[in-house]
């Protein structure tokens, strides 16, 4: 189990990581979601033993993970970090890049394991090409295959989806999911922690999601919990499309105001519906999303709401009526 306790890291005047504590169980997937500059990469480096914490510590299976100032070769043998740039050897094939991680193993096992990894990461067809001859998605998967080759306890990934197109994002998402489950069958369970600024993949595969803001972990929980009960407007926005309105505008939707009219209320688009008996509003935007349409409907000068519909006959300027699917409103703390 990987446990980080009260990690703090500052760069001169910037406090990049503030008192962050997390724990990752064997076989778990955790995603840390935050805006640019929220401290994601710094935290990953601390977890990997590649940066020295000012205070706090990281432990893997009870043993302290030393920082680079304490060891000759920075990093920990059981923790692998896949960087955004992949850091592959440019003059050797995909296969050899992966095999290099297993150079101290017997050849027969090495060949077996490399074949297994090529299959798992869907790289068998491109195994003889050098990195410049493969796509970004294939480079990413080669870096992941190399990182997990000798079954580390922890796989850390920095923005594994950010440079990829949608099909490749889905392949990598499924791969992470598969490899954590697949590698669990063996005697050691690999855990995976990745950082991202886009929660869409995180919501679907992570067991736990942490929301980072200005170096602080402001919320940690299961994806469903964070999505439906975000603590702040920032956590709500980082995890998907959301309407945030002040409680004083709830009567517009036929609901009573709260004691404090300035309280922020979070309404996910799917909590709203087009409803002939609901509140009238004017369609301000219609976005085609493939499986559905996203509408922006102005219900007053101060309130525009986003909702989803399968109706394909709506036009900008048209008046529609909006109702709530359920009255489960969620109150934000700020
Ligand atoms: N070497 C450094 N020297 C000074 N400040 C730094 C250094 N590295 C990061 N920072 C600052 O620390 C804060 C956190 O940076 P970090 O790179 O960890 O965030 P991030 O969430 O990974 O951002 P991004 O998504 O843009 O990569 C930022 O304010 C950044 O400017």
UniProtKB/TrEMBL annotation:
<dbReference type="GO" id="GO:0022857">
    <property type="term" value="F:transmembrane transporter activity"/>
</dbReference>
<dbReference type="InterPro" id="IPR003593">
    <property type="entry name" value="AAA+_ATPase"/>
</dbReference>
<dbReference type="Pfam" id="PF00005">
    <property type="entry name" value="ABC_tran"/>
</dbReference>
<dbReference type="InterPro" id="IPR013611">
    <property type="entry name" value="Transp-assoc_OB_typ2"/>
</dbReference>
<dbReference type="Pfam" id="PF08402">
    <property type="entry name" value="TOBE_2"/>
</dbReference>
<keyword id="KW-0067">ATP-binding</keyword>
<dbReference type="GO" id="GO:0043190">
    <property type="term" value="C:ATP-binding cassette (ABC) transporter complex"/>
</dbReference>
<dbReference type="InterPro" id="IPR050093">
    <property type="entry name" value="ABC_SmlMolc_Importer"/>
</dbReference>
<dbReference type="InterPro" id="IPR008995">
    <property type="entry name" value="Mo/tungstate-bd_C_term_dom"/>
</dbReference>
<dbReference type="GO" id="GO:0005524">
    <property type="term" value="F:ATP binding"/>
</dbReference>
<keyword id="KW-0813">Transport</keyword>
<keyword id="KW-0547">Nucleotide-binding</keyword>
<dbReference type="InterPro" id="IPR027417">
    <property type="entry name" value="P-loop_NTPase"/>
</dbReference>
<feature type="domain" description="ABC transporter">
    <location>
        <begin position="2"/>
        <end position="239"/>
    </location>
</feature>
<dbReference type="InterPro" id="IPR003439">
    <property type="entry name" value="ABC_transporter-like_ATP-bd"/>
</dbReference>
<dbReference type="GO" id="GO:0016887">
    <property type="term" value="F:ATP hydrolysis activity"/>
</dbReference>
<protein>
    <submittedName>
        <fullName>ABC transporter ATP-binding protein</fullName>
    </submittedName>
</protein>
């Amino acid at each position: 189990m990987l446990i980080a306790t009260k990690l703090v890291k500052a760069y001169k005047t910037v406090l990049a990581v503030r008192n962050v504590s997390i724990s990752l169980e064997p076989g778990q997937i955790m995603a840390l979601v935050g805006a640019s500059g929220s401290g994601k990469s710094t935290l990953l480096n601390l977890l990997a033993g590649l940066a020295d914490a000012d205070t706090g510590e990281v432990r893997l299976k009870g043993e302290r993970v030393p920082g680079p100032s304490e060891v000759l070769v920075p990093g920990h043998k059981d923790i692998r970090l896949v960087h955004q740039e992949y850091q592959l050897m440019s003059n050797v094939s995909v296969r050899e890049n992966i095999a290099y991680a297993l150079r101290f193993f017997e050849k027969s096992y090495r060949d077996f394991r490399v074949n297994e990894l090529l299959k798992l990461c869907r790289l068998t067809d491109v195994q003889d090409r050098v990195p410049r001859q493969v796509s970004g998605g294939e480079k990413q998967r080669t870096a992941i295959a190399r990182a997990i080759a000798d079954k580390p306890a922890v796989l850390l990934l920095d923005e594994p989806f950010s440079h990829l197109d949608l099909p490749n994002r889905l392949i990598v998402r499924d791969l992470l999911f598969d490899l954590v489950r697949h590698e669990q069958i063996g005697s050691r369970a690999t855990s995976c922690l990745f950082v991202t600024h886009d929660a869409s993949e995180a919501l679907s595969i992570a067991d736990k999601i942490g929301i980072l803001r200005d170096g602080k972990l402001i919320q940690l929980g299961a994806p469903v919990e964070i999505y439906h009960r975000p603590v702040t407007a920032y956590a709500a926005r980082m995890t998907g499309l959301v309407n945030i309105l002040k409680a004083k505008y709830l009567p517009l939707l036929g609901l009573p105001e709260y004691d404090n009219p300035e309280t922020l209320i979070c309404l996910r688009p799917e909590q709203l519906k087009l409803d002939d008996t609901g509140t009238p509003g004017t369609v301000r935007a219609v976005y085609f999303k493939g499986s559905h349409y996203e509408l922006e409907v102005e219900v007053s000068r101060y309130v525009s709401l986003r909702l989803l519909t399968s109706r394909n006959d709506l036009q900008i300027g048209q008046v529609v009526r909006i109702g709530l699917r359920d009255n489960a409103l969620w109150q934000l703390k700020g």
